[in-house]
């Protein structure tokens, strides 16, 4: 399936963005009261088309991103599966909180007929990410969530994979047209300034972004400084702390070392859930064990040249901080990056946490050593570390669950991490985010701009929904999903939850 990218402008003009937003708004008003089953069928059609075009799209992605075909093929499967899961959530209807309280004159005060629902906010601007060219890009989680909410998407294409983005858009728009949907349910555009213009437009009602804290702050300001501020859901940066407890370090040293080496180098360290700082007992000498697993690992290009430059500069600066010992350095260049491992005492980190606990995007991690002479000392030190950790998407604990001391320490550490991290993991690694109802992919700033919500899983739909209530409204004037007699959608009627038939 050849794609003509010559017609794709290098930067979308002001007049172009104005026209595109107008088209998106028209689609919103014409489809906002469509049956959720219709939205679900459109999403499923796009998922099927994405799977059918996988081989062609993976070939483009491999050229543009330097990621492997196996990684990219798996990401396509994840992306189409995510579209289908959120389509199923729309089909069930529980995500819209459809609620009917019939009139009851015997109540005090008398209750009128009340019907409430969550409806789509309107056109949504989605900023595609660089590190997941499928799962967090054109047809990624933000697009799927907006669609399931009934919101058309204005997609700001990432400059790191433009040909892939235009090709994916063509697949989606062709599938929508074939399914009887308006192809403008998703519209692509390019350019940083165009993205800011779109986010500031009064017809746009929400924004979603995955990228750096620097750019995320700028976009957040645009969304908040409008005459009518709108929600802006940004996933910005995360160090994803790991705490290795003493008994686990003694009894599972090699297993933990191998797991850490594999996790922080997965995808060349370009996962938002990469473990960036790891607290380890000094006596375990875990750095030696991890270094053994890193020896011989190959180097390769990162996603973009700018990411490569930032990685080289970031690891160089980290290695020069007071007290840092460089355990492994692949001597990365902008064109080819390899694993970097350093270690530092907890006391040095406590003295200047901002310097040591900043995110370094790429295959680098920092071991923070603490003294493990006795449990009381360990608990005190880990409490001090927890108090300075920045907000993160994940927090991980490795504990020997057959050791009473580790179990007690794990309880304390988990209790503290749950206030700093969106997902707490025991005896595993954070790289890998299941697309499921129970998944939370979010966290306190700077992990996200809105810790109340997730960007993965069906509950991510809630970001693009807003409540509206109707009182004493004639049946014919109600949205179809709130009219009497519906059995195909989950609704709460007079206080009782009635599942979809």
From TrEMBL:
Keywords in UniProt for this one? Oxidoreductase
Gene3D superfamilies associated with the record: Aldehyde Dehydrogenase, Chain A, domain 1, Aldehyde Dehydrogenase, Chain A, domain 2
One Pfam family, please name it. Answer: Aldedh
InterPro entries attached to this UniProt entry: Ald_DH/histidinol_DH (IPR016161), Ald_DH_C (IPR016163), Ald_DH_N (IPR016162), Aldehyde_DH_dom (IPR015590), Aldehyde_DH_Superfamily (IPR050740)
Any idea which GO molecular function terms this record carries?
A: oxidoreductase activity, acting on the aldehyde or oxo group of donors, NAD or NADP as acceptor
Say which domain of life the source belongs to.
Bacteria
UniProt domain Aldehyde dehydrogenase: residue ranges: 11-375
Q: Which PANTHER family match?
A: ALDEHYDE DEHYDROGENASE-RELATED, SUCCINATE-SEMIALDEHYDE DEHYDROGENASE, MITOCHONDRIAL
Q: Quote the protein name from its UniProt record.
A: Aldehyde dehydrogenase family protein
């Amino acid at each position: 399936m050849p794609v003509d990218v010559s017609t794709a402008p290098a930067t979308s003009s002001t007049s172009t963005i104005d026209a595109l937003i107008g088209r998106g708004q028209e689609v919103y008003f014409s489809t906002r009261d469509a049956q959720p089953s219709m939205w679900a069928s459109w999403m499923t059609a796009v998922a099927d088309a994405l799977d059918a075009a996988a081989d062609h799209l993976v070939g483009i992605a491999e050229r543009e991103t330097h990621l492997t075909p196996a990684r990219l093929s798996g990401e396509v499967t994840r992306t189409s599966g995510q579209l289908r899961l959120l389509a199923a959530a729309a089909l069930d209807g529980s995500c819209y909180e459809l609620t009917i309280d019939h009139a009851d004159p015997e109540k005090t005060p008398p209750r009128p007929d009340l019907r409430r629902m969550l409806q789509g906010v309107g056109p949504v601007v989605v900023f595609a990410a660089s590190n997941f060219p499928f799962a967090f890009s054109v047809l990624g989680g933000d697009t799927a969530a907006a669609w399931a909410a009934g919101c058309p998407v204005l997609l700001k294409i990432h400059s790191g994979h433009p040909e892939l983005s235009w090709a994916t858009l063509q697949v989606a728009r062709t599938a929508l047209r074939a399914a009887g949907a308006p192809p403008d349910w998703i519209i692509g555009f390019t350019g940083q300034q165009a993205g800011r213009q779109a986010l500031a437009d009064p017809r746009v009602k929400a924004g979603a972004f995955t990228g750096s804290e620097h750019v995320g702050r700028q976009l957040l300001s645009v969304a908040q400084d409008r005459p009518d501020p709108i929600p802006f859901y940004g996933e910005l940066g995360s160090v994803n702390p790991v705490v290795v407890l003493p008994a686990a370090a003694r009894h599972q040293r090699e297993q933990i070392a191998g797991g850490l080496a594999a996790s922080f180098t997965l995808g060349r360290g370009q996962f938002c859930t990469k473990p960036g700082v790891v607290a380890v007992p000094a006596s375990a000498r875990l750095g030696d064990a991890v270094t053994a697993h890193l020896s011989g690992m190959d180097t390769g290009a990162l996603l973009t040249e700018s990411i490569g430059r930032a990685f080289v500069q970031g690891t160089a600066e980290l290695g020069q901080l007071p007290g840092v010992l460089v355990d492994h350095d692949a001597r990365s260049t902008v064109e080819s990056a390899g694993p970097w491992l350093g270690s530092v005492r907890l006391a040095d980190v406590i003295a200047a946490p901002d310097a040591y606990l900043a995110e370094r995007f790429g295959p680098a991690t920092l071991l923070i050593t603490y003294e493990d002479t006795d449990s009381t000392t360990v608990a005190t030190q880990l409490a001090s570390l927890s108090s300075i950790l920045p907000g993160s998407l994940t927090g991980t604990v490795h504990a020997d669950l057959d050791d009473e001391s580790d179990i007690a320490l794990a309880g304390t550490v988990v209790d503290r991490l749950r206030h700093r991290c969106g997902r707490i993991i025991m005896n595993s690694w954070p790289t890998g985010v299941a697309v499921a109802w129970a998944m939370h992919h979010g966290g306190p700033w700077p992990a996200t701009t809105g810790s109340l919500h997730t960007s993965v899983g069906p509950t991510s739909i809630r970001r693009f929904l807003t409540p509206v209530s109707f009182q004493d409204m004639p049946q014919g004037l109600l949205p179809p999903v709130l009219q009497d007699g519906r059995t195909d959608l989950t609704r709460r009627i007079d206080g009782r939850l009635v599942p979809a038939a």
